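User: Hi! Is it possible to get a structure for several chains at once, not just one? Here's what I have:
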Amino acid sequence: MPEAAKKPSPKPSPKPGPKPCPKPCPICRRPMVEAFRPFCSDRCRQVDLGRWLTEAYVVPGPAVEEPEPE
Ligand SMILES: [Zn+2]
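Assistant: Yes, the chains can be modeled jointly so their relative placement is included. Here is the combined structure:
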């Protein structure tokens, strides 16, 4: 009985652990801070909020058609 057939079985064990690379701040691309996620700071959060508001003002909505008085 030959004992040469000892093969170290490869163990591909992908452990679902914490992600090594968190998403960067969408504003300045710096590492996200848990307290301000998904941003890196309160400043970037405000910037994002302002951006939304600004776009809301810039983007022209559908023209409101007023009913013509007869
Ligand atoms: Zn940022």
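The mean pLDDT is 80. The radius of gyration is 28 Å.

User: Great, thank you!
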